[in-house]
From TrEMBL:
This is ABC transporter domain-containing protein. It comes from Talaromyces rugulosus. PROSITE patterns: ABC_TRANSPORTER_2 (PS50893). Pfam families: ABC_tran. GO terms for molecular function: ATP binding; ATP hydrolysis activity. Keywords: ATP-binding, Nucleotide-binding. Residues 7-232 form the ABC transporter domain. Coiled coil: none annotated. InterPro entries: AAA+_ATPase, ABC_transporter-like_ATP-bd, P-loop_NTPase. The keyword ATP-binding applies.
Amino acid sequence: MPAPPRIIVNNLTYIFPEYPTGVRNITLDLPPGSRTLLIGANGAGKTTLLRLLAGKRLCPPKAISIGGVNPFNETLEGVTYLGLEWVVNPIVRNDVGVLELLRSVGGDAYPERRDELVSLLDIDTRWRMHAVSDGERRRVQLAMGLLRPWTVLFLDEITVDLDVLSRAEFLGWLKRETEQRECTIVYATHILDNLAGWPTHLVHMSLGAVKEWGEADKMLQAIDGTVGRTGNSRLGELVLDWLKEDLKVRGPRSNLLLN
Ligand SMILES: Nc1ncnc2c1ncn2[C@@H]1O[C@H](COP(=O)(O)OP(=O)(O)OP(=O)(O)O)[C@@H](O)[C@H]1O
């Protein structure tokens, strides 16, 4: 990557061909080393935005810059996108061993990193992938996906199958990565456990637009104390307020059927 992994989005609008949905007028500036949480209700546009950022959909020429590069036009060295299509890749359901899989994605080139991920994700290298649980499969996938040292990581909630401890370890490792190397993370998630103190930035999306975004500490200042009214973390409390407000503005989807 030619420049530090800063992510700039400049008035990005993308509408799906033949559908009136998409994302509109999105502007963001996420500095190198930041860890951004993308927050929003189902259908808010998080996956659409992440896929645009990762260069998987064509966007207007100057709307996105990842380390100074338009991701659709140029190959993005060091950018990793882990989303649904990666999760459903059938390769990780074959009768194949863990080490063989890790080798196939370059594990031998990064032996220390491979061993660190195997240990962190509590992977038994004797596993055969057709005979593991969903969570075990997900851990191996994560090790595969993260093995090459990325500079920008786009994560579309891929930790749902992990148990609480594994997810906490994983999040801690991601945080250390951004502290020890020059790299940047954007993570779309609905699961806020163990995320207190994790994000440097928050982006709140609703109905295909960014409603607000900024430094997490500043945005969380509005919520008093470390634990909110419902026992949630301050982050959980803030997000709950956002989503309630979004629902109020949009109205329940069931109303659409009645009209
Ligand atoms: N391929 C597509 N073609 C047309 N519309 C789409 C397509 N993919 C998503 N949409 C629509 O775009 C909107 C945003 O979808 P998106 O998947 O980005 O939401 P999301 O915030 O990631 O939701 P979730 O939290 O459920 O994953 C939705 O209204 C959805 O119906």
